[in-house]
Amino acid sequence: MKRYDKYDEFNKWYEDVLQYAKIVDKRYPMKGSYVIMPYGFSALKKMKNIMSKLLDSYGHEEAYFPLLVPEKIFKKEKDFLKGFGGETLRATKTFLQELDEELIIRPTSETAMYPMYSLWIRSWRDLPLKIYQTVNVFRWETKMTKELLRVRELVAFNESHTAHASAEEAEKQIKEAIEIYKKFFDEIRIPYDIFKTPKWETFAGAQYNYDFFTTMPDGKAIELASVINLGQKFAKAFNIKFMDKDEKKKYVYQTCYGISERELGVAISLHGDNKGLRMISNLAPIHIVIVPIKKNNENDKKIMIYCEKIKNMFEGTKCGKYKAEIKVKIDNREIRPGEKYNDWEKKGVPIRLEIGEKEVKSKTLVLARRDKLTKEKIKEKNIKESVKKIIKEIDKTIYREAKEWHKKMITKHKTLKDALKRLRNYGGIVGVKWCGDENCGKKIADKLLGSAIGYKENEKVEGKCIICGKEAKHWMYFGRTY
RNA sequence: GGGUUCGUCGUCUAGCCUGGUCUAGGAUUCGAGGUUUGGGACCUCGCGACCCCGGUUCAAAUCCGGGCGAACCCA
């Protein structure tokens, strides 16, 4: 088995890890479409669950809107059409006939949802409306595609769409969405920074948006999530009006925000090591694997009984904020133990318990932990507490390492030359002083051979714009992005 | 957007330059059996591939054209 260094050859590492850990199979015969395998899907399901519970707890409701949208409706908001039209698929015929009405396949569901919003929303009493769905959407990427990170069919696109009576309420919703996403990324242990996107990079049809960003092991920056204030553009295009308390008809104010399976790809990338995956407890499909070490003699039975006993001890045991059940698997395959060790280390199972003759006799267990790859002896009676404690510790180590990396990869620079050098040699996200002018921003992006990520709203800056020399308004951040 | 390189068993690859030796070799995976089991062990046997379409030729994995796909570099 070939091994790659996560940082030196990230591309190869990533593909290799996903394949041998059975997360996705990239061999589906179509560019940009990947099969998510059971082990990967299980982790994805956990991730979706965390998001759903968070959204529910903040008063969102889950619904489902159709995959297909009549072309006429899709074209209603012009900026949106301009932004998404290029990668939107059109359905025009069957094998037997042309369709009477051309349809499009959603690249995101604004145009599927908002016609219904205009029917549903009649009064200020109907507001706020906060709805989400987790569905597949299609974006016909022409450039690079990559498993989970950039795909043509997003299979776990979680999008929330809200409508409000006033601009202030929409603003408040933006803050709430940011809070939700902060919690979400904390839960899946992905460090991030939040940037306000510069005007010229804003979501098509929006007023403004905030993006969560992090840096991948290859130094490229990646957008994790977008929180978007849509203002009233869509409300006007889709005629979403309500009767306010003052008996006047008004357009609603809207926001939307979304994440996808990309988050799983990022978690895998940030958490793994050169041996393979390292699953944090909130995403791990299996938390503990028990490896019986048999000797082909009469003791084997006792070993198996002991394994079962240990497994049963964990029945109904939960871990983490979301009370996820601790999943235990006994690996009883007829292969040598060493092979099993490697197999499960690749798959990133946090804890491995080894049970052989010695352990049965002495009522102990050998516990191997995936974060440090060390082994220790545990007494049977302490096993439950020890496991709970160590699972927490493993989460902590992995998170700490990810945070250290993240901190290292965001830097500020006095000169363009410095920033360029940094991007060339290390990648990451670089900040320079900027006056707030679009032309200057674009110029910097050009010179850095990257793109503008955004600025942190509360970050103070003193000095001059690196391009025009006028008073700087922000530290503006740039990077080479996915 | 521009350029370069590449496409052979499930996977990694040898062969291509210089057409015939290729009934396409190896490693690994997979299946059967044996042996073994405290870090991917070993042995025997077996299954398994020239991206697609066209051209040149007595003869194409090999040369040419096109298509599709992939990787990398530059802007």
Highlighted features:
Rossmann fold; 3 domains; Translation Initiation Factor IF3; RNA-binding; alpha+beta; BirA Bifunctional Protein, domain 2
Structure description:
With 482 residues, the chain is an alpha+beta fold. It is built from 14 helices and 25 strands. The protein has helices spanning 10-20, 38-57, 71-74, 78-84, 110-120, 167-187, 233-238, 262-271, 299-313, 337-347, 357-362, 383-408, 416-425, 438-447; strands at 24-25, 35-36, 61-62, 68-70, 89-93, 98-105, 129-138, 153-164, 193-196, 208-215, 221-231, 241-243, 249-251, 253-259, 288-292, 318-319, 324-325, 328-330, 351-355, 364-369, 374-379, 410-412, 429-434, 451-455, 474-479. The chain has a seven-stranded mixed sheet, with helices on both faces. Strands 18-15-19-20-21 form a five-stranded mixed sheet, sandwiched between helices. The two termini are 28 Å apart. The chain binds one RNA strand of 75 nucleotides through residues 1-2, 11, 19, 27, 29, 31, 291, 293-296, 334-343, 345, 354, 356-358, 366, 449.
